[in-house]
Each structure stands twice: as structure tokens, then as C-alpha cells.
Amino acid sequence: MKARYKAVWFDLDGTLFDTAPDLIATVNRTLAEHGYPSAPAEVILPYTGHGSRQMLQHALSTTADDPRLPALQEAFYAHYLRHVAEETRWFPGMAAIVDDLDACGVPWGIITNKLERFTYALARHFQLEQRVAAIVCGDTLATAKPDPAPLAYACALAGVRPEQAVMVGDSAADIRAAARAGMPSIYCDYGYTSRADLAEDDRPIAFVDSPAALAPLLFGDAP
Prior knowledge:
Layout: E1 7-10, E2 17-18, H1 20-33, H2 41-44, H3 52-59, H4 69-82, E3 89-90, H5 94-104, E4 108-111, H6 116-125, E5 134-136, H7 149-158, E6 165-169, H8 172-181, E7 185-188, E8 206-208, H9 211-218
Parallel strand pairs: 1-4, 1-6, 4-5, 6-7, 7-8
Antiparallel strand pairs: 2-3
Helix pairs in contact: 1-3, 1-4, 3-4
């Protein structure tokens, strides 16, 4: 098997792992602790890729400046760290893709806006820390996606140029960060955000609706 890229970077939530069940459960656990009713999963799900504050905001049907949100967010953090991997799973087929990257000797890693404390907890749970070439989180550097710095940093760690790598993700932030870094990108329609979030000039090289559709874009002779 031959890989098409010198390195492959994955977003975490909605791309590599299906983290939504634990995120949604944590939102509702936080709400219950503070005396608020649970929110339906379908209300929270569209915001799982946008951070805990937006999930809580929309679960409460409130505004971004609601003074309750900072305390709720801190409570969310405490609960989520304790329950970060109870229901989280690989998206079907993703474990096989990273196994194949390992077999090809291609560095791969995680570039996420998730905070380090949660990302590394998941990495430890899934025994990834010794496998990845880089883990770059939302608080690793001074800036996060869509700024290109996290992608450039990961490439420097792996010893590859941005144009030799590919960013795989399910959000506009992934696609924009890649474009600004001079890196091709692949958009995952199976994730948590919508193509409607993409601007006209957000142009990934491909859209995929499953990891099975992703694999042929990562392996084989270059087109």
C-alpha cells in the first residue's frame, strides 16, 4: 500500500472520533446539576464542533452573553474530564485508516480546537500518544484553527512541508486553516458541522461521506 501524502492530520471531534454522545451527556449532566431541564440531543448536536460554551448556550436557548454561561462551562469541564471516553468511539473505518498509515510509515496526528486536558485524556484512553507525530490542541499555541499556525507547527514536528500533507476535518475552520497553510484538505460530511458553514472560497479537494470514501484519497498513486 502506498500513501499519497507525507503526513495526514485529522480533526478529532466529528472526524476521527464520534465524541458527540459524551459531549451531549455532559451538557445535560451539567444542566441537571444546576436545576435546568435536559436539552434534546438534536438541539445540542449541531454545536458539538463549536465548543462547550455554544453547546450550553443553545441547550438553554439563550444568548452568548448570558451571565450563567461561565459557571456552567466550568462545571461542564469538570464533568467532561470524568466522562470523556464513556461512549466515544472511532468512526467506523477510521482505526483501520490510521493502522494503514502506520504500516506505510506515514506520520499522522490530531489537530483540534479541543483543549489539551480533554484531547490527551482521549489519546491516553485510545493509546495514541506513542503513535501520533503531533497532537496540537486549541490551547497548545497562541492561536487555533482557522489560523494556520497549528498546521504549520504539526508539519514542523513531522519534518514535512505543508503542501506535502493533508488536513482531514469536518468544519470550515479545518478547511480555512489548511488553505492558509498552503495545505490541501478533505471535508468530512459525516461529521457534526454542515457544508452550509463553508464560504464560496472554502475549497477542499474532496468531500467524503464516510471513512470508507476517505481511504482511497489517502492511499494509492497520486492523481
